[in-house]
Write a structure and sequence with these properties.
single chain; PTS_EIIB-like_sf; phosphotransferase system; transferase; transport; sugar transport
Length: 109
């Protein structure tokens, strides 16, 4: 099973941070994938990703409109950077692109 983790943050740290998190989780679950999203909003980090979450992740999705705190955690992981509005409005399309990429990079026997 594909395991997705994400971090969402927006310049104002309010609505879009949480709307993007919900959209990513919904789109990943619709594909049958596990997904955990950390939000870095105006009230700080919520649903913080653990070292175990990061280690188990196949793909990391980061919003790119504002710097993500502790981004070094994801070094060496396949990372997708998306705009916060794309995460909100186009999460399904983002998951389709990830699925196509995973299919093309899958190791076959």
């Amino acid at each position: 099973m594909t395991n997705i983790i994400a971090v969402t943050a927006c310049p104002s740290g309010v609505a879009h941070t949480y709307m993007a998190a919900e959209a990513i989780e919904r789109a990943a679950k619709a594909k049958g994938w596990d997904c955990k999203v950390e939000t870095q909003g105006s009230i700080g980090l919520e649903n913080e990703l653990t070292a175990e979450d990061v280690a188990a992740a196949d793909i990391v999705i980061l919003t790119k409109d504002i710097g993500i705190k502790f981004e070094e955690r994801f070094k060496g992981k396949m990372t997708v950077r998306v705009g916060i509005s794309d995460a909100v409005k186009r999460a399904d399309a983002i998951m389709e692109k990830i699925a196509a990429h995973l299919k093309n990079t899958a190791v076959t026997d």
